[in-house]
Structure formats: C-alpha cells, structure tokens
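Troubleshooting log. The previous run stalled partway through. Resubmitting the same two chains, unchanged.
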Amino acid sequence: MVRWGITAVALGFVALFLVVPLVAVFAEAFAKGFGAYRAAIVEPDAVAALKLTLLAAGVAVPLNVLFGVAAGWAIGKFQFRGRHLLLTLIDLPFAVSPVISGLVFVLLFGRRGWLGPWMIDHGLQIVFAVPGIILATIFVSFPFVAREVIPIMEAIGTEEEEAARVLGAGGLQLFFRVTLPNIKWGLLYGVILANARAMGEFGAVSVVSGHIRGLTNTLPLHVEILYNEYNAQAAFAVASLLGCLAIVTLVLKAIVEARVERSARAAAHAAIEVMPWESKSAV
Amino acid sequence: MNIRAQRRVLPGFGLTMGITVLYLSLIVLIPLATLPVRTMTMSWAAFRDTITDPRVVASYRLSLGASLAAASVNAVFGALVAWVLARYSFPGRRIVDALIDLPFALPTAVAGIVLTTLYAPNGWLGAPLAKYGISVAFTPLGVTVALIFIGLPFVVRTLQPVIEDLDPEVEEAATSLGASRAGVLFRIILPNLFPAWLTGFALAFARAVGEYGSVVFISGNMPMRTEISPLLIVTKLEQYDYPGATAIAVVMLAISFVLLLAINGLQSWARRRVAP
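Second attempt completed without errors. Output:
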C-alpha cells in the first residue's frame, strides 16, 4: 500500500514538472497547424540561428574534447602536487552563473573592456559578434568531457599503457590502440552532455551576443526574440527543435550510460585478473 | 619511487599538462580573474552603494529565498523519486529514469517559455490554479516553480546510487527485531542517506542561485518584486554600467564559492560515511 502511494506521488511529481512541459512544447509548436510550424522553421533568421548554433557547438565541443583528453591523461594517469586543486578549477564553470560567464568576456573584450578598445581599433570584434558567442559556448561546456574522462582514466590505471610502452609502442600508437578503446564510451558520454549544453546555452550567450538578428542569434536567443514579440507559436516551433535535441540527448545518454557501466565492470574485472600475476612477475 | 617509475614509462605528461593548464587559464581562469581585478578599480563606497542598493538587496532576497524553497521541495520529492527509481520496478521505469535528466538536456530558454505558457493565467495549469486565486506566472512562486524544474535532477542523481547501495536486508532485520516502519525510516534509512541528501540539496540550491534562462520569462522582472540577481547584472550591462554589473557579479561569485566549498566538504563527508 505504502509502496503504491509513494510511487504514485513520485510519478505524479515527475509528470507535473517534466512530462507536461515537454509535451506542451510540441503542442504549442503545432497549435496553428503544420504549415505555420514549417514557416517558422524555414524562415531565414531561424535558419541563420540554427547555423550559428551548429557552428558554436562545432567549435566548442572538439576543443573541449582535446582539452578533456589531455586533462584526463595528465590528471588521471599521473600523481602530482596540486592535483586536487586542478580538479576543482576545472569544475569552476559549473559553479558560476551563466550570466557571469558571459559578463567576464564583455569585461575583457567589450568596447569599455580591457582588451576591447585595442582589438576593435585593429578590426577585431569579439563581443557582440560570432567569436564572443563561440568563446562563451566553450566556457559553459568546458568541464563536461574532462569530468567524464578523468575518473575513467584513473580507474583503468596505467598497467596496460605501461605494458604497451615496454613492448615498444610510440606515444600516439599507445593512445589510439590502448587508451582510446578504454575511454571511448566515457568520452562519448561527455561529448553528448557538452553538446547539449553548447547548443542550448542561453544566459552566457545572451550577454555576449548583442542580439543582432540573422548575425549573432543562436537558436535559444531566436526563441527568446520570437517569444518577446508575442509570436508564441513561432517561438515554440523553434523551441521544438531544441526539444528534439533534448530527447535525442536523453536517448543517447541512456544508451551510452549502459555501455559505460559495462566497460567499467569489464575493466575492473580485467584489473583483478591481471594484477596478481603482474605483481608476481614484477618481483 | 613508484611515481618516478611511472613517469619514466608513460610519455606525454609534460605535453598534456601544458595543454591542460594553458587552456584552463585562457578559457576559465584569466576571464574569471577580470571580475575581482575590475572590482579593485572601484572605490569602496561605490562598490558598497551598488551592492546594498534596495533593488539589488531585494534581488538577493528573491534569488536566495526562491532557491531555498525550490531546493527544499526537490529535497522531499526528489528523494521520493530517487527511492522509487532505485527500489521499485514498474512499467516504464527506464523511461522515467532517462526523463529525470530532461532539465539538463532541455535548453533553459525553452524551459522558461514553456513554464510561463503553462502557468500563465490562461495556461493549462495556470487557469485551474487561478480559480483558487493562486497566480504563479510573474510572481515569486513562478520563479520557484522554474527553479524546482532546474534543480530536480541534482537531488535524484545524488541520492539514487546511495539508495541502490543500501542493503534491504538491514531494514528487514530491523523489522524482524520489532522495529516499526517509522523506526526503520528514521533510525536506518535517513541517517544513511543524510550526507548525500544534503549534498543533493546544496547542488540544487547552488544551481538555482545562478539560474537565468528558465527564470527570466516566468518571473516578469518587476523591480523590487520579481527581479533575480543575475537579471540585474544583465540590466546593468545593457545600460553600460560595467562597474555596477561587476559588483553584483562579485557578490554572486562569492556566494558560489562558499557553496562550492560546502558541497566539496559534504561530498567528502558522504564518501567517508559510505566507505566501510
């Protein structure tokens, strides 16, 4: 009895706060029929916003992957002083309000910022232009890949790489043949999360964008403009694209999560089998 | 010695460490450092006047109050959701489990406009509530609703693995020794969950304090009543009042750091409690 009561309350809460909003996005998007929906999406400003969103995520995610893998190797495979501090610093973008993430770039590159006047004199516009949007996107999606990769690198340990090294593998060969296969699911998991944040970021991007239609508008900013112009149906039509992104993210996440768990179990299992033998032969 | 041997065998420490520190500095540390440095150039009186302006103080009160309320609601209902997902099986459990992360995956602007539409006086949920004289959209209650949406996964995802690790046999043993249901709950389950529960609460609270996108639509942004602190930063920036924006940002950054320290402390406490 109690069990069914608790389940009903919990599912009711989930339905009210998660399911109803998700359904409402699509219901509002199609409120005026498919024609209006299509019109809102193929409109040039919406297409330009989609392109800019893809560009920002397309730059931010690969850069953060490079960083995440480098950080994973340095922090996960080696012990050194200040390791804990470094881990905390990597998490900083999560602790900071998105608005502050945008603000710092305005303070640096804005017209009244530190480097802004000099850069604008030299024809480099960062803030209220595409580079600022890309920078803010990199900032907010910064920790995701590193956070996934570091603990996996650490858990797997260094035995396999050491063995490969002793057998004569070069640095790159070592990475692509030994390390990458071990971390690939965790890496993919980080990429999915980083991408969702990069494409969906609103606060930070809003502060640095300047809201120039067709030029510095990403999809979330376009949603805001349409909504504030009382064009709710078009706003929800564009929002439904982001809703699809969210659903795809959740599905991929669930699939990859199962893989990460399986490969972590396999790694733990392999470690137990290898280690006693190795410690003996090392002596 | 072990460390040295490791360094000799595995290549690339210098290179990867260099990339890590360089990229971290360029993207995160140097930009963030502009905040305190920029504040130093303000006079103390100007700084104090900005951060104690009644309109700004009202925004702290709303941001902290609504975040506290939302984190509390999530602490109760998030715990129930985590319990149900970890302990019970029912049709569609995996779908519900995946759906919990929706607030992470759905862009905040989308959450903002859909919650506003739902809770507006003529919305699906706002209309029935309006009959009872409850208005949600454009009130502090609306801000709280948006923050509940944003914070839910933090509580559920922190508690779920801990509940999965609880051994039901301990509860059964207690019951067979004559403990009541309430006794099992208060003597066994809650003490074991407490550190993780507090961590989840703190994470949800920390996220809510800085949240912007999902709140600005539903709040209505009336000065003194429904303006959150991040919105005031944006407002000051739009007026080219960089020092004003910076001053409020520094206060918020200080709050975030205190919360970050508290969360780190809580997490290591939780780990120690779990470790045998």
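Takeaways: The two ends of chain B are 29 Å apart (CA to CA). The first helix of chain B runs from residue 2 to 9.
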